[in-house]
Amino acid sequence: MVGDFLADWYLWTKAFHVISVIAWMAGLFYLPRLFVYHVEEVEAGSKTDAMFQTMERRLLRAIMNPAMVAVWVFGLALVFTPGIVSWDEIWPWTKAASVLGMTWFHHWLGLRRKDFLAGRNSLTGRQYRMMNEIPTLLMVVIVVSVIVKF
Ligand code: HEM
Questions:
Q1: The complex's ipTM?
Q2: 0.90 cut: is pTM over it?
Q3: Name one GO cellular component term (predicted).
Q4: Which of 63, 123, 124, 146 has the highest local Cβ count within 10 Å?
Q5: What distance in Å separates the CA atoms of residue 140 and residue 137, rounded to the nearest whole number?
Q6: Which atom of ligand 1 is nearest to the CA of 71?
Q7: What are 60-104's pLDDT values in tens digits?
């Protein structure tokens, strides 16, 4: 029953999955960049500090949180679509591990945003630049897993 419904809507589900992925990834790439400028260019307590905090809050709450939920909802709908995922293969496991990593990174960014809000950020611009490589690496692994299906 549910399986038939999901099978009928498979391509639409996949389309909305990829649309949500694009929105989520945009935020996952951009928020750490905002942190780099925030820590390197902005004086704590200044008007610009408040402006960065607003930009960071809106990016996380209005774009990234809803996009992450949508990626998970459509992604799990694809998992439960009959005949799409075979857990005997390696790619679903590589993808699942990377997607958990991406979700961890999202929450890590949320915690760092709260640090800025409280005026107690302890990381440098260089450290934020390095952390910025994590979503790039995970994205490459995920896309290769799901397209090449090794
Ligand atoms: C968060 C949990 C996620 C789950 C449960 C999930 C699950 C799935 C499943 C089951 C498929 C269908 C594969 C197929 O049709 O053969 C799929 C497709 C896809 N996923 Fe995800 N995914 C998730 C997150 C992501 C993320 C974070 C990315 C990218 C960074 C991503 C990129 C894609 C792409 C590009 C496709 C389309 C592949 C194709 O053309 O067949 N997914 N996903």
A1: 0.93
A2: yes
A3: plasma membrane
A4: 146
A5: 5
A6: 1
A7: 999 999 999 999 999 999 999 999 999 999 999 999 999 999 999
